[in-house]
Design brief:
mainly alpha; 9 helices; globular
């Protein structure tokens, strides 16, 4: 897929051209699927949200909201990674709410026994830690978002953010160390 094709289609969507959204989806579907697969690698095996559903939900949010105002391919995929992160976090929070009662039948703690914490808890904790990092260092938080949640390579992140690969490598190392300290129990 040519970089210019995506940029051209994004411009056509902004201009309201009929069919531009469908053509864009056909052009970016494979890349979005790769991003979604990268995100789903960090999820539990029995996750109820599948990569294909994540792609479709993310794309709908991208074009339904004003996210389609991306200037170019790199910005579009960076935004797609952020949207996928939000979808997974929303899904994890909903799962936690269900776990805490939701519409479920209540069970006495003595009857429940010891139940291990689910992966959704750690995902929500990681999201909160990334938000705290963003408050003090937005660029490093963005690198984490694109690398961990988006599955982008160092080179792709450098292109999205307009910085060098050495900067991305350094930011990734520092951010990982910071997050490890934040998430230690």
């Amino acid at each position: 897929m040519e970089t210019g094709d995506v940029t051209r289609l994004l411009a056509q969507m902004r201009d309201g051209k009929t069919g531009a959204s469908d053509e864009l989806f056909a052009r970016v579907h494979h890349e979005l699927r790769r991003l979604a697969a990268g995100q789903m690698r960090h999820e539990r095996r029995d996750h109820t949200l599948q990569a294909t559903a994540l792609v479709h939900e993310a794309y709908l949010r991208l074009v339904d909201q004003r996210e389609a105002s991306s200037e170019n391919r790199a910005h579009f995929f960076g935004t797609a990674a952020s949207v996928m992160r939000r979808i997974l976090i929303d899904h994890a929070r909903a799962r936690q709410a269900d776990k805490r009662g939701g519409d479920q039948v209540r069970v006495d703690l003595d009857e429940a026994g010891g139940v291990a914490a689910e992966h959704s808890d750690s995902l929500v904790e990681l999201d909160a830690a990334v938000d705290r990092l963003a408050a003090i260092d937005p660029r490093r938080a963005r690198v984490v978002e694109l690398r961990f949640f988006g599955g982008l390579t160092v080179e792709e992140i450098a292109g999205v953010m307009g910085v060098g690969t050495r900067t991305v490598d350094r930011d990734w190392r520092v951010a990982r160390a910071w997050l490890r300290r934040e998430l230690e129990v």
